[in-house]
Fold:
Amino acid sequence: MWDFSEEEIFDCACVNNLSGIEFWSQQIENKNLSSEKIRDLAKEFNLNLTLHAKSWDLNLASINKKVRDLSLRETLADIDLASKIGAGEITIHPGRFSVGFKEEFYYDLLRESFSAILNYSLKKKVKVSIEIMEKIKKEFIIDLYSLKKLTGSSYEDFLYTLDVAHCDNLDEIYFNLNNLKNISKVHISNRLRDKYHTELDRGMFPMEEIIEKIGEKNLPMVVEGMEIGRTTFILDRNLKFLKERKII
Structure:
């Protein structure tokens, strides 16, 4: 709901019996949404909030220090924003490769960024949830192994966001559900082989089965689908899928 007002977004959540909303920081900034209004509406409607940090054009592991520093500043500012709107958690995309340097070089840069993020989040009392990314060029935090390599002894200090569409098959989805600690939420959408975040009923995954498995673990689910403008085609289709199966 990129071009909708704060009131319209909250009305949609309530009418459809949703328990919360994950706002995208880039939307709040670009559409000049009010953090105070979001906070007040969340209290009025008794909805849980999480915030997704900016990620477009940013890279917390960039070889370019100015880009890396800017990415960190934007992320810390988003932690401030999460606190302002009353979100207890912020979702963050990890950094990615820039050029063909050795992998460990980028791990060191990203560890430095996440150390600063963790320290700041503790001061602000906002929990940090790292999202596991899809297996595409330049992404390297793509599975449990790479996640543990990144966080090391700090592994249990973070929360984690599992994105179903970032997984390649059912086995990977269920492996992560059963083995990843501190999952704070699951982003749900379907996918075609090379197209991510399709509608729940359009793709290669049996979403009803997956949602049932997630529900058995009592994990919050965030329905994901990007629509620029004042259209709700994808949203309506996803809500229809969930309602027909009595999930909401």
Remarks:
- The radius of gyration is 18 Å.
- Strands lie at 20-24, 48-52, 89-92, 127-131, 159-163, 183-188, 190-191, 196-198, 221-223.
